Amino acid sequence: MENPFSKALSADPAPLGLAAFAFTTFLLSFVNAGLIPASGANVVVPLAAAYGGLGQLIAGSWEMRRGNTFGFTAFTSYGAFWEFYALLQILADLKVLTVLPSVAVGWSLILWGILTLYLWGGAMLLNLALNLVFLTLWLAFVTLGAGAVYSSTALTHVGGYFGILAATFAAYTSFAIVMNSIRPGMLPLGPGIMRRKS
Questions:
Q1: pTM
Q2: For residue 79, what are the domain limits?
Q3: Where, by residue number, does the polypeptide cross the bilayer (predicted)?
Q4: Is residue 114 part of a domain?
Q5: Segments in the chain below pLDDT 70
Q6: What angle do CA 98, 159, 133 make, to 5 degrees?
Q7: Of 38, 54, 137, 17, whose CA–CA distance to 89 is shortest?
Q8: What's the total number of domains in the chain?
Q9: Is residue 193, in this structure, part of any structural domain at all?
Q10: Confidence (pLDDT) at 194
């Protein structure tokens, strides 16, 4: 008897994870870049918990089920990042923690940048669109981290713009994968920079 869930299990979870990342990153990056007031961070918190975090954790769990180690590691890690961000903001608002701005927060962002740097290496093998997502995200984390460590508004604004670029590339990649699932080859993702050995 045919498994009624077999088609559902073959669906690609990457567009969900990329969209959850992209649209949450857009909003926070608008704040970091100074394009919307800092109070906009209050709206980022529920979006980070419900979509950026949960959406990527779901995508990561399905990537694991499909045997995609890269997708599992990336989506689960960045989903956890958004849950970390939301929890940090909530605890700060409740006066449980006094963290913002903070050198420790800056270094936590730099550490996320290190994770992103090593994932960027994997993205180079996949396609140009993902390569650009991870490159600009790495630049965003490092610049935002330095901005927090040195209390530099200018660096935070630059990091915000890198975040907007990362979100743009992620949104495009999500859209391209969805459209290509309907009509193969409709939108290009570009070749990987490095070729896999067969």
A1: 0.90
A2: 11-182
A3: 43-62, 69-92, 98-120, 132-152, 158-179
A4: yes
A5: 1-9, 99-101, 194-198
A6: 120
A7: 38
A8: 1
A9: no
A10: 66
